[in-house]
Write a structure and sequence with these properties.
Layout lengths: L1 H23 L5 H21 L4 H11 L6 H24 L4 E10 L5 E11 L6 H11 L4 E7 L2
Parallel strand pairs: 2-3
Antiparallel strand pairs: 1-2
Helix pairs in contact: 1-2
């Protein structure tokens, strides 16, 4: 009886999706949309009749995406996150009276596709080493316990 319930829910979901897409898509794509959704319906119906669990297919796609190959979209998201974190940290340092020349934050994605902050790099003008502990403390308060690399530049 459970397979009948799943089949009914799948048919209803595909019908709603088909109706919404048909309303929003241009007229010239209706035949392609109908073909794709008909194929999905056939797969859904076949899997329900044969008792095949569709989650097996989705699990294989998930394992492919988490195998370490990061898509271009994910790379762009990571770059945006790093950029925003760098700007945030630079602003916080400036508010604390430390004027860094440059701040960069590095992030990593693990096997579970979780993003974590791995390091912050702060470039200071001059060689005022008294600010090192203040910077490390501020980074730990604002971002967390990460590696902080402090460099000094002459300009």
């Amino acid at each position: 009886m459970n397979w009948l319930k799943n089949l009914s829910l799948g048919i209803c979901a595909l019908s709603v999706i088909y109706t919404i897409i048909k309303l929003l898509a241009p007229q010239k794509y209706h035949s392609q949309i109908k073909m794709v959704l008909s194929l999905l319906f056939a797969i859904l119906l076949g899997s329900m009749i044969l008792g095949f669990d569709i989650s097996d297919i989705t699990d294989s796609f998930t394992s492919i995406s988490s195998s370490g190959n990061i898509s271009q979209e994910d790379r762009l998201v990571i770059l945006e996150i790093e950029s925003r974190l760098s700007e945030y940290l630079k602003t916080e340092l400036e508010n604390a009276g430390i004027n860094p020349k440059k701040v960069t934050v590095k992030t990593n994605i693990d096997d579970n596709l979780c993003i974590s902050i791995s390091e912050a790099r702060v470039v200071l003008v001059g060689n005022d080493e008294t600010k090192i502990e203040r910077i490390k403390l501020l980074v730990a308060q604002k971002i967390g316990d990460i590696d902080v690399i402090i460099e000094f530049s002459e300009e």
